[in-house]
Amino acid sequence: MTATLIDGKAVSQKVKIQVKERVEKLAQQGIIPGLAVILVGENAASLTYVKNKKKTCEALGMRSDLHQYPDTLTEQELLTKIEELNQNPEIHGILVQLPLPKQIDEFKVISAISPEKDVDGFHPISVGNMMIGKEAFLPCTPHGIMELLAHYNIDPAGKHAVVIGRSNIVGKPIGQLLLQKDATVTYCHSKTKDLASITAQADILIAAIGRAKFIDHTFIKPDAVIIDVGMNRDENGKLCGDVDFQDVQETAGFVTPVPGGVGPMTIAMLMGNTLQSAEKGLSKTK
Ligand SMILES: Nc1nc2c(c(=O)[nH]1)N[C@@H](CN(C=O)c1ccc(C(=O)N[C@@H](CCC(=O)O)C(=O)O)cc1)CN2
């Protein structure tokens, strides 16, 4: 039997339709959700992502301002821009595209964004609230993964979830979100010994390693749910994930493709977070 495809493109469309309906309701009250996206430098992939964010915002009836700077921008200049956006009542979400050039301290920059506008969910206050299960903007990729699991009726409760990767934006938070849904979570990383013996116990495997097609059928348990967060190029320059999609077909129960899996969900969840921020602002003025 071949694995069931987890179709992130289709699920993200569904999420975006729901967001659009809520945006239209807000517009009747004179509020247009506004997202400010800051891009520093000329990273080609980042430019594609920020353009996609802008295009998606506009398609859903939201405002999106792209602030683009050369990689010579100083940290202070960036902090000044963030402060200006923090004060702008028409902007409900602020996002600084990562990675940033080396001269800029990522933590300082993320911490400068008002937590109320932190639609990426990267601010230490957002992370802290998420950790203790309080209301917070959830980071978009992990949030998108949880949405995909829910859509396919995959309940993490009692399952062994193995996360490969410990980044602040994917690995650490997805483990926490799975834990909150009562999964038993194991984190693996570059220093983990005998990785395959651990991943082979996973009912849900999250691959966020950054190595093209690294996970093949020898790493996985029969019928496991495989979520591929990788975004790599193969030997022919073709986009691929951390999972060898073809090779796991006969073993996995469910698998996300790359492209068309987790990636589109990231942008859809960002739209949801921006809308949520605008809705919160409205309820405060009532
Ligand atoms: N401030 C942030 N920076 C970064 C984030 C983030 O969530 N916030 N995540 C990634 C990049 N990213 C969004 O910013 C992102 C990556 C990939 C996709 C996506 O849709 N991928 C497509 C393929 C796209 C292609 O053809 O190149 C897919 O998987 O189908 C969306 C968003 C790092 N930085």
From TrEMBL:
Positions of the Tetrahydrofolate dehydrogenase/cyclohydrolase NAD(P)-binding domain: 139-280
Keywords: Amino-acid biosynthesis, Histidine biosynthesis, Hydrolase, Methionine biosynthesis, Multifunctional enzyme, NADP, One-carbon metabolism, Oxidoreductase, Purine biosynthesis
PROSITE patterns per UniProt: THF_DHG_CYH_1, THF_DHG_CYH_2
Residue ranges occupied by any Tetrahydrofolate dehydrogenase/cyclohydrolase catalytic domain in the UniProt entry: 6-120
InterPro entries (alphabetical): Aminoacid_DH-like_N_sf, NAD(P)-bd_dom_sf, THF_DH/CycHdrlase, THF_DH/CycHdrlase_cat_dom, THF_DH/CycHdrlase_CS, THF_DH/CycHdrlase_NAD-bd_dom
Pathway listed: One-carbon metabolism; tetrahydrofolate interconversion
EC id: 1.5.1.5, 3.5.4.9
CDD domains from the UniProt entry: NAD_bind_m-THF_DH_Cyclohyd
Binding site for NADP(+): G165, R166, S167
Catalysed reactions, as listed in the record: (6R)-5,10-methylene-5,6,7,8-tetrahydrofolate + NADP(+) = (6R)-5,10-methenyltetrahydrofolate + NADPH; (6R)-5,10-methenyltetrahydrofolate + H2O = (6R)-10-formyltetrahydrofolate + H(+)
Domain of life: Bacteria
Matching Pfam families: THF_DHG_CYH (PF00763), THF_DHG_CYH_C (PF02882)
Family that this chain belongs to: Belongs to the tetrahydrofolate dehydrogenase/cyclohydrolase family.
Subunit structure of this chain's protein: Homodimer.
Function: Catalyzes the oxidation of 5,10-methylenetetrahydrofolate to 5,10-methenyltetrahydrofolate and then the hydrolysis of 5,10-methenyltetrahydrofolate to 10-formyltetrahydrofolate.
Name this protein carries in UniProt: Bifunctional protein FolD
